[in-house]
Amino acid sequence: MKLLAFLIVIVLVTVNADNSLSPMQCLGLLLKIKTGQICQEGDKDCTDALIPFNQCMENCDQQSTETTQYVYCVENNCKSTNPTIQRATNDFVFCANSAQDPSSHPNPSSSQSLIVLYSILLSLLFIII
Question: What residue stretch is flagged as signal peptide (predicted)?
């Protein structure tokens, strides 16, 4: 019983503490866009729209010296009328901005507060059991 309670608390703490996005997640999304993995198989409209879109992303890459410049360029210059491509672009921009700027999260200290709260609850649970 104690082990089960301990595992539940560990899972809750882990889930609540890991609410940030990593640069690797953003890189994975960018790779999916560049390789066309975001388009469904046989979606010719998506794959056709991806060619000029990827060219725009390449232009942003060549003009940018920092990641923030690249993300800004993609966000403002690389628009697509294809909803699949635009959705993936929006996800990438959100991911990149969140990974770079921890202050974009609603309350960065809430994770620490939850960890303390769950630690206290765990201690009380062990005392009761």
Answer: 1-17
